[in-house]
Amino acid sequence: MTLQLLVAAMNREPRGLAEEMGIDSDAIIVSQGGQYAYEELKWKEHRIRYYSMAERGVGLSRNHSLLRAEAEISLFADEDIVYEPDYVRKVLEAFEEHPGADLLFFNVQAMPGRETYCNREFGRVRWYNSGRYPTYSLAVRTRRIHQKNITFSLLFGGGARYSAGEDSLFIRDCLKAGLKAYKVPVSIGHERERESTWFTGYNDKFFYDRGVLYHYLYGPAARPMALRFLFAHREEMCREIPWRKAYGIMCRGIARAED
What's the whole-model pTM score? Predict the structure, then answer.
């Protein structure tokens, strides 16, 4: 079984990034914000294919790498993830232990205050508990994604019209297509501190964009799911904007998407 790392980056050169991330596998790096260029290099006996793109948008970046992926397993990555030395072994062993899994979610330690999940046991991931997982926690059987023709949304995520959510929509599309997703209590790396490319605080835009996202994620259930989201995170997210006002902003986003 083979593994390829699919890295979304901004204005990075391949060798320095591979060193920072601890890359020890084949990889496709898509770096946005520069001029169009392609380079192929050997790194620790592995093959790295590096694409520099002028366009912006994390969904577009991930699609570029996903459509070029060749290995049996694709592990999604951001440029601020630092991998444990044995991450390849851990990921491949997990897929070997769970042959019925099309998607596996691994533990990647986020920066303090940014944690959204922690896998303490093996279990199934369904539509109602899939929204907590970032793309960089996810590895997939490449052939299954290609067979189902699943790609990332260009409307959501860093650099797109709406600031986040391309990961949740991708996972939703995988589940709707009948792919089987599981979480595993296996740690493969941690997030390195850097400034977010899209998050500017829990402001009007954050809640409005979240409302638009919830329309696409949950359809008729968008409003109750918005209430559920705000109730669960009100102490952290509703310090400046009260939760009732935040809910109203989310509902405006939902209504806008419904038009």
Answer: 0.92
pLDDT digits (tens, 9 = 90+) for 19-78: 999 999 999 999 998 889 999 999 999 999 999 999 889 999 999 999 999 999 999 999
* Residues forming beta bridges with residue 38, ordered by sequence position: 51
Domain spans of the chain, in order of start: 3-191, 204-258
Taking alpha carbons only, the member of 27, 110, 37, 40 closest to residue 73 is: 27
CA distance 215 to 156: 13
180: tokens are 């089987």
Q: What is the DSSP string of 121-189?
A: S-EE--GGG-TT--GGGEEEEHHHHHHHT----SSBSTTSSBSS-HHHHHHHHHHHTT--EEEEEEEEE
Q: How far apart are CA 82 and CA 257, in angstroms?
A: 37
Contact between 125 and 105 under an 8 Å Cβ cutoff? The reply is yes
CATH (residue range 3-191): 3.90.550.10
**Helices and strands in the chain: count of H runs, count of E runs:** 8, 10
pLDDT in tens, 163-194: 889 999 999 999 999 999 999 999 999 999 87
Cβ burial of 124 (10 Å; 0-12, 13-18, 19+) is exposed
State pLDDT tens for residues 111-145. Answer: 887 788 999 999 999 998 998 999 999 999 999 99
Q: Whole-angstrom Cα distance, residue 230 to residue 247? A: 7
Which helix (H) or strand (E) covers residue 48, if one does?
strand 46-53
